[in-house]
Amino acid sequence: MPARELVVGGDSAIGGALAGHFSDAGWQVQATTRRPDQVDEGRPYLDLAAPTALPPADVVLMCAAVARIGDCENNPTSSHAINVDGTLAVARQMAGQGAHVLLLSTDNVFDGRKAKRDRNAGPCPTCAYGRQKAEAEAGILALGDRGAVLRLSKVLTPGNELLADWAEALAAGQTIAPFHDLYLAPVTVDLVAELAIRIAGERAGERAGGIFGGIFQCAGAEDRNYVDLARILLAEHGGDEDLIQPISCRDTNMPAAAGPRHTSLEMAVEQNLWGIAAPEFGATARAVILAGNASPA
């Protein structure tokens, strides 16, 4: 019988993509939805603001969250109810039924002052979202070998809206305004899926002495700004360099905590175990662009 995977947050871009990857890898997958009209045998209903009973699973992948930093800053009580209270209620319920729980977390549990942050460094968040995720991490890790954390930097999913909008503008000869002081160390959702399946496979006993539990990390090899991302897009599709008009994120309504200087995380464990190294910035950007997710109209 295939191992059973429950994706909490199947409506999200990352959750939906990961559900597809697990299914392709031979797992029996169910993915929760908050949309009543989408509920069926493979899509159980779940609202983390008021969690209910869920079907049994061998591994539970916690993808649902209020992830916009501004939303968490402006609505700390309601976002905490989802990112911490609801998340841990589901995790404890499922762990109590024998499942292993993998929480998707974030580089925002750190302050962004250092590159390639060590996984064993104490969390030092500077925003409500980071504090909530650090609290959720602690609750998951308290489950012992029933709980694990996978911290992520910026994940570029298929159909990335920003890249698609930029590509459309460039194709029309219009300017784009990337931030010169906003940084990212991006990864593809494919890489996130590969790591999540590896971690879940440890639980399934694919390696002797499986290591489910603890902290894993997935981030790009270097922190670059959004102007560099725009230039890679321009190089792939052609266009006038003058169409890129950099601006400062400080001139917008973006919360200061949303713009850390560093988002990269060290990946020594992942490289030693599975040969998965932090990807190079350009390779990640081109993988998304060349897949057609940001092709000009």
Describe it for me?
It is built from nine helices and ten strands. It has 297 residues and is α/β, with parallel strands linked by helices. Helix content is 37%, strand content 13%. The chain is globular, with a radius of gyration of 19 Å. It has one domain: NAD(P)-binding Rossmann-like Domain (Rossmann fold). It has a six-stranded parallel beta sheet with strand order 2-1-3-4-5-9, with helices on both faces. It has helices at residues 13-24, 69-74, 76-96, 128-141, 161-171, 189-203, 226-237, 268-274, 281-293; strands at 4-8, 28-31, 59-62, 100-106, 147-152, 155-156, 183-184, 187-188, 214-218, 224-225.
Going by helix content, strand content and strand pairing, the class is alpha/beta
Number of strands: 10
Q: The biggest beta sheet, please? A: 6 strands, parallel
CATH class: Alpha Beta
What fraction of the residues are assigned to beta strands by DSSP?
5-15%
Observed structural traits:
297 residues, alpha/beta, Rossmann fold, 6-stranded parallel beta sheet, two-stranded parallel ribbon, 10 strands, disordered C terminus
Q: SSE layout and pairings?
A:
Blueprint: E1 4-8, H1 13-24, E2 28-31, E3 59-62, H2 69-74, H3 76-96, E4 100-106, H4 128-141, E5 147-152, E6 155-156, H5 161-171, E7 183-184, E8 187-188, H6 189-203, E9 214-218, E10 224-225, H7 226-237, H8 268-274, H9 281-293
Helix pairs in contact: 1-6, 3-4, 5-7, 7-9
